[in-house]
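Project outcomes to date are best conveyed with an example. Our students and postdoctoral researchers have been running inverse folding experiments weekly, and each run begins with a structure described purely in tokens. The record below, which covers 201 residues, was selected by the lab manager from last quarter's runs and is presented without edits.
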């Protein structure tokens, strides 16, 4: 590396206009009085650049990228080690497992129907999340009412409530139809009675 403290080279200074040849390299601070000195400088490629001040945002982005790169390399190494350990696969390992259907117990059905009916009576219908938490915490005779394998997820409870609601609507339609049928039969009986009384006269 050459030293640029001679009379023909100077670090860029806006006040000094006697040095007219500036280095075209971005961020290089050197200026020269002669074109030959500039050419030598460019041939050597020995630039004196101003250190860039990075913002906190830039520093954090660089650090984040470094952290991700180290984590990924650790993941790759650990996955290679795991694949070496379990290189033998059982036949059918990629097939989808059969889903087992778990039926609600009579205790669960009773509790869920009770919550549904309370919600219907009071007008404050229970949320499936709320009922799921209640199943986990409710106690009967000082012990938990439901064991851990009888807990149900909010989606399971929600679908159960939907079925109860559908059954309620269907029974309401059937009762309305039967009431209509009874009313129609009553009306037909009245018409028949009138026609009989008219015919008798």
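After processing, the design step wrote out the following sequence:
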């Amino acid at each position: 590396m050459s030293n640029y403290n001679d009379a023909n080279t100077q670090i860029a200074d806006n006040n000094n206009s006697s040095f007219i040849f500036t280095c075209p390299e971005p961020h290089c601070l050197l200026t020269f009085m002669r074109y030959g000195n500039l050419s030598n400088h460019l041939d050597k490629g020995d630039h004196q650049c101003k250190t860039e001040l990075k913002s906190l945002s830039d520093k954090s982005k660089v650090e984040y990228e470094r952290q991700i790169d180290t984590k990924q390399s650790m993941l790759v190494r650990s996955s290679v080690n795991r694949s070496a350990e379990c290189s033998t696969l059982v036949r059918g390992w990629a097939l989808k497992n059969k889903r087992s259907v778990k039926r609600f117990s009579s205790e669960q059905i009773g509790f869920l129907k009770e919550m549904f009916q309370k919600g219907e009576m009071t007008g404050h219908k229970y949320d499936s999340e709320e009922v799921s938490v209640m199943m986990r915490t409710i106690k009967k005779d000082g012990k938990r009412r439901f064991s851990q394998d009888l807990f149900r997820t909010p989606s399971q409870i929600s679908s159960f409530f939907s079925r109860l609601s559908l059954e309620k609507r269907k029974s309401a339609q059937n009762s309305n139809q039967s009431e209509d049928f009874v009313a129609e039969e009553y009306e037909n009986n009245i018409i028949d009675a009138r026609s009989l009384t008219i015919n008798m006269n």
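Strands lie at 9-11, 21-22, 30-32, 139-140, 143-144. Residues 1-5 have pLDDT under 50 and may be disordered. The training component of this project remains on track.
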